[in-house]
Amino acid sequence: MTLTSISNLAGLLAAQEKFSSAEAYGGEAVEGLRRVLGSDHPSTLNAISSMGFVFQVQGKLPEAERCYREALEALNRAGGAEHPNTLHLTDNLASLLEAQGKYGAAKLLFGQALAVRRRVDGDQSAATLASIDNFENLLRSLWDAARADGGKLEQGQAGASLGAFLVSLEKYSEAEAILAQTLPLLFSQSSTNSPAGFQAQANLALAIAGQGRFEEADAILLESTQWLIEHEELFELLEDYGSPTSAADVLQTRIDFYTAWDNAQPGQGRDSQAASWQLELDALKAE
Fold first, then answer.
1. Cβ-contact 96, 56 below 8 angstroms
2. Do both 177 and 62 map to the same domain?
3. Helix ranges (DSSP H) in 38-83
4. Nearest residue to 183 via CA among 205, 213, 162, 160
5. 90 plus 69 within the same structural domain
6. Are 1 and 28 in contact (CB under 8 A)?
7. For the chain, which residues score pLDDT lower than 70?
8. Contact at 8 Å (CB) between 157 and 241?
9. Residue 28 to residues 5, 25, 41, 268: CA-CA distances in angstroms?
10. Residue 43 near residue 37 (C-beta atoms within 8 A)
11. Residues 21 and 113 grouped into a single domain
């Protein structure tokens, strides 16, 4: 029997809950493949990942995490972040971290996998849609946990992240409700001078606009985006809140808002407002 076959047998035994035999065969396969093919060979990495599964089904989550992390680091080096095996193992590790309550690390990995799949496969592929579900479910778990046990900052962070993601999914009504709860929590941390609060406020405006209430959203969006433009140096603090990365991103948000308003209610001069902000964006990019 080849070493790869032994590794496959270990996975089968684990699925049959014959854990002692599964660990013995899995360990034999990993050690043999390391010796013969090297630690970074695809067959070795498959065996290490399979060993992680053997540990995971037994509830030995720290041991499974070590296996998954070793295999994932090597896959990133060898095949890159866009390789299907890398993405599959990224999701597995993220799910394992979530099961251990390591929500921050899980969020990072789910978010990385989703960004890659959107870039490579588009928003409507089966793999991307599965990643969207994974990420949304994790953000909901974070929100529920923060409301149950967290302080104001934790609740604000979790609500802002979930609300921003729901806006991106066009789930505007639910996003509005969550962000409306989140804003007082974020602003209470630093009076009215809260970068996270103004970013959540901008997302709230987009949630309101997405429901056709453009006039109500207009003042909210202008106030929040103006503050963000004037405090661009603070953008790096906003990565957990559905954030822009530059003043140009904020201006693009304004342009998209007025363009959508004009499309929904033409003939009211909103196209001129979009064009005005486009000129400002062009001038900023030319600097």
1. yes
2. no
3. 42-57, 61-78
4. 160
5. no
6. no
7. 1, 189-193, 233-245
8. yes
9. 11, 5, 16, 73
10. yes
11. no
pTM over 0.70: yes
Q: What is the CATH number of the domain that holds 116?
A: 1.25.40
Using the structure block, give the residue that is written with the tokens 């405006």. 205
Looking at residue 239, what is its pLDDT? 53
pLDDT at position 241: 44
Q: Which two tokens stand for residue 128?
A: 């991307």
Domain limits for position 102: 79-149
Write down the residue that tokens 């985006």 correspond to. Answer: 225
The CATH number assigned to the domain holding 30 equals 1.25.40.10
Question: 188-201 burial, b if ≥16 CB within 10 A, otherwise e?
Answer: eeeeeebbbbbbbb
Burial 68-101 (b: 16+ CB within 10 A, else e): bbbbbebbeeeeeeeeebbbebbbbbbbbbbeee
Q: What is the pLDDT of residue 1?
A: 62
Domain-embedded: residue 102: yes
Q: Do 258 and 273 form a contact (C-beta atoms < 8 A)?
A: yes
d(CA 57, CA 15): 8
